[in-house]
Amino acid sequence: MRDAARVLANVRRGMLPAHIYNDAEVFTAECERLFSRAWMFLAHESEIPQVGDYVVRRVLEDSFIVSRDQDGDVHAMFNMCLHRGMQVCRAEEGNASHFRCPYHGWSYRNDGRIAGLPFHKDAYGGEEGFARKGKRLLPAPRLDTYNGLIFISMDPDAPSLTDYLGGFGFYLDYYTKQSASGCELLGPQRWRINANWKIGAENFAGDMYHTPHTHTSVVEIGLFREPQAQKRKDGNTYWAGRGGGTTYKLPPGSFEESMAYVGYPADMAARMKEQWTAQQQDVIGRDGFMVSAASAFPNLSLVHNWPKVADSDAVVPFISLRLWQPISANETEVLSWFVVDKEAPESFKELSYKAYLMCFGSSGMFEQDDVENWVSLTTTAGGSMARRLLLNGRMGMLEDGSPVVPPLTPEQFAGPGVAHVGYGEYNQRHLLGEWADYLERPPLDVSQITVGRQQ
Ligand code: FES
Ligand code: FE
């Protein structure tokens, strides 16, 4: 990447070289240094509940079959036949005990092991000439799960997923651990936008500032109970480990009152209370903050909101999870799932799904507003003038780099990490700081990686 040291130094000061949002060279560096090492979300265990269930997902160009084998174990296998490289599975999802390559017919068990190959004896001399034992579809170098969320890393030396997520796991529980049964996902809906992947990730991580303006129309039609500007101004942004997000400030009240305020039935709130630690409950009850949008570095985002879904004043909360799948410097595939507690009543699931579709589904009102901005930003960032411009990413930061508002104390906010009330681009700077750290590391040397080598 040209001028890398200067670009990264500026990013760390909150002075953002505009071209990083549409630059093929930057994208190549991201592929080689960032996506090759970071933990990437692929799927959720609830998408493959039965033995033999599978979904096919990608990390950049690499396709993976995410399967549940006959023993119930989860695998992520590189979707490329060991013979001549055909894509073994071309369906997006299904149930299979075996996968048979469409080209010459080699077959694999759903844990990746070779099962059979046509004319084994005549073509290869049978087991003596080509022993099947030990041969399997190439596994993802690392696989781990958190609350059923399946992540892989292409770096065999990546830290554990728990260490990688760090304090952000505390917040991830609000979205994905609401009962002992965990959550279930519906989707993904998928669509492509002509926008750079970082813009969405940054927006969900901490852009409280755009809501009152970009989403004015949603506010004006009365989808929300309170003026957005007020709710956002009094909320906070927090960053912990490798993720961060925003909260809304709730009216004073107990944990139970706060949960009822955002529309959770009492039985759901009671199950959440059982799952969450006293500290997690304090964020909501004692401190009065309710998690809203969030991002885990690099490209997993979440949203929690509670709009009105019918012609009444009742609000219904929904949770959605999305992946910003980078296609190129100026194109991103969005994968968006509806997330709900498995134990939630069916009537709640239906209304909550409606709320999700209305706000953040492919035709959701928020979605339309946001994407219009991001496509425009990306297009403008691809020109020559953008190479001369440093954007202002310093909201909430004084000239000397100190914060406009001091961080909240543990007495004010029980959650881990650093949190600030009000508007500020603290989280965007954290996210881009991680980005800069990864881009400074050398590209992953795959010639040294022997994991899964077949011959
Ligand atoms: Fe798969 Fe030949 S490429 S069997
Ligand atoms: Fe938005």
TrEMBL record:
Keywords: 2Fe-2S, Dioxygenase, Iron, Iron-sulfur, Metal-binding, NAD, Oxidoreductase. One of its GO terms (molecular function) is dioxygenase activity. It comes from the Bacteria. The keyword Methyltransferase does not apply. The keyword Zinc-finger does not apply. Residues 39-152 form the Rieske domain. Belongs to the bacterial ring-hydroxylating dioxygenase alpha subunit family. This is Phthalate 3,4-dioxygenase alpha subunit.
